[in-house]
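User: Could you go from structure to sequence for me? I need the amino acid at each position, not a summary. Structure tokens:
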């Protein structure tokens, strides 16, 4: 009764009260027509927001799964700079880390064989790129740059190999 008398005095209270009633769980005393007009607006907005959130989540899962099947290929006639080679190496490295994580999560499931195969292929790609980068720098005679690259990335590459072997042994695929 009190809320009805307040809403008669203040038009603003009548306009905003249904939202507060829904949040607080209070009993609404406004005319039924106003309830039906306001409810679909609020619920449709919530449904649209929920649909957008779930649609984004689904797209992320699909793209995450599909991105592991690609490898970076360069044209045979084009010589890459050291920076471009390092960038491709690190992209491939990040992909391998994700695949190893996926394989680690799927140990003991039917998906493990596929996940460890993908991780092995990507890890081999990283190792080939690493060896190629070192060979190119040695061929160019850039000993200082080679030493700098080794000091920055060699530990990461060793850690990647060790992590891959650990996951392979944990899954019994060794």
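Assistant: Here is the amino acid at each position, in order:
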């Amino acid at each position: 009764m009190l809320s009805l008398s307040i809403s008669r005095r203040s038009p603003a209270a009548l306009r905003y009260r249904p939202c507060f009633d829904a949040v607080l769980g209070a009993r609404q005393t406004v005319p039924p027509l106003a309830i039906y007009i306001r409810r679909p607006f609020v619920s449709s907005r919530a449904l649209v927001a929920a649909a957008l959130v779930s649609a984004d989540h689904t797209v992320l899962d699909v793209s995450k799964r599909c991105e592991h099947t690609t490898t970076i290929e360069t044209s045979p006639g084009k010589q890459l700079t050291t920076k471009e080679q390092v960038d491709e190496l690190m992209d491939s490295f990040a992909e391998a880390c994700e695949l190893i994580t996926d394989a680690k999560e799927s140990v003991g499931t039917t998906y493990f064989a596929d996940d460890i195969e993908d991780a092995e292929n990507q890890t081999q790609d990283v190792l080939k790129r690493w060896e190629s980068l070192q060979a190119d720098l040695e061929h160019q005679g850039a000993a200082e740059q080679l030493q700098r690259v080794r000091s920055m990335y060699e530990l990461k590459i060793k850690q990647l190999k060790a992590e891959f072997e650990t996951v392979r042994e944990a899954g019994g695929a060794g």
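One structural detail worth keeping in mind: The two ends are 75 Å apart (CA to CA).
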